[in-house]
Amino acid sequence: MNKEIKKFYSNRKKEDFYFEDIQNADFGLIPNDKQGVYILVAKKGKFLYPSKKYSPIFYIGMSTNLKKRLKSHQNEIKRIHKMPFKDRWDDWYWERHQYAVAFECKVLVFTIRSSQSAKNLEANIIENFYNEFYGKPVANGAFSFKKINTNY
Questions:
Q1: Does residue 129 form part of some domain?
Q2: Among 53, 71, 96, 148, whose CB has the most other CB atoms within 10 angstroms?
Q3: Residue 141 within any structural domain of the chain
């Protein structure tokens, strides 16, 4: 598994899928309707977090259809990559795509196991990231909250 992931997430021995470059990745390798979490990792550069530690991870996301979601990211990243830099500000774009274009991007994918939901897996991974770096990844807009059982 990528050493940057091992720093905060040790619940698995390795990711289920690894793509060295999001722009050239073949997401057809992922089965249809496979659920899970994907982590976008900068190939060039690292980001400083409040723990005063650096990490190349800039986004943690989840999907109930990983293949479709990652292809969507891939298409948007390719589109932005072709644009002159000055034209990227005519419209607002998702930060995760801007980071992927600026720093290049590899992708790690963790699929759900047994009765686990993609949302709970995402919440677990983000919580572990936060505990290590005291912040969420720079391109994540919000936390992924688990539904807490309030029936006592």
A1: yes
A2: 96
A3: no
Instruction: Say how many CA atoms lie within 13 Å of 88 toward its Cβ.
Output: 18
Residues of the chain with pLDDT under 50: 147-152
Q: What is the CATH number of the domain that holds 62?
A: 3.40.1440.10
User: Which pTM was predicted?
Assistant: 0.90
Q: Is-contact 51 134, C-beta < 8 A?
A: yes
DSSP secondary structure string for all residues of the chain:
--HHHHTT--SSSS-SEEES-GGG--GGGSPTT--EEEEEEESS--EE-TTS-EESEEEEEEESSHHHHHHHHHHHHHHHHHS-GGGGGSS---HHHHHHHHH-EEEEEEE--TT--HHHHHHHHHHHHHHHHSS--TT--S--PPPP----
* Segments forming the whole domain that contains residue 98: 3-133
Look at residue 18 and tell me if it is in a domain.
yes
Nearest to 31 by CA among 62, 64, 75, 76: 64
Note whether residue 143 is domain-resident.
no
Q: Tokens for 152?
A: 């006592």
Tens digits of residue pLDDT in 9-20: 998 999 999 999
